[in-house]
Amino acid sequence: MPCADWLPFLKGWSPHQGNYRAGTGLQPIAFGEWKLSTSICYEDIHPAEIRRLMTGDDGRTELPHLLVNLTNDSWYGDSTEPLQHLVLASLRCIEHRRAMVRATNSGISALISPTGRFDGRRTGQWTREILVGEVPLLTGRTVYSRLGDWPFWPCLLALVLGLFLRRATSRAS
Known about the structure:
Elements: E1 29-31, E2 34-40, H1 47-55, E3 66-71, H2 81-96, E4 100-104, E5 110-112, H3 143-147, H4 152-172
Parallel strand pairs: 2-3, 3-4
Antiparallel strand pairs: 1-2, 4-5
Helix pairs in contact: 1-2
């Protein structure tokens, strides 16, 4: 229940609601010798959130080998949003060069490659299917996992300055 810590009377409005707390870290889940970075629902569309899960806030040197996402897309209904959600999730695979196993309750579940492809390795929407396949379990860091979003800002500044200077020189001509 949101805000129940600050407003305890809210718990009475939904007495069967669980008392959940945020975790204390971003450690990956161990699966045998492999490490899995797990995100829930729309977290997979936020680059900074997945980067934090992949690189941690504890200075770890061993990174997760696989991205896993559990999603409830049923609230989108029968629309194009589940496909958009899937495509946005595939960008996280590209940023970190990791495969993703994405499981949804209403579609679209998929096995996404480290290059962001899900060629034929996805389920339909609102269908009952089982998806079986192999995914590579990789190691290493990408430029994005090392640097994050900060290179974007100098590039944007250079673009804006370039456009401004071009406009200024065309007016002077």
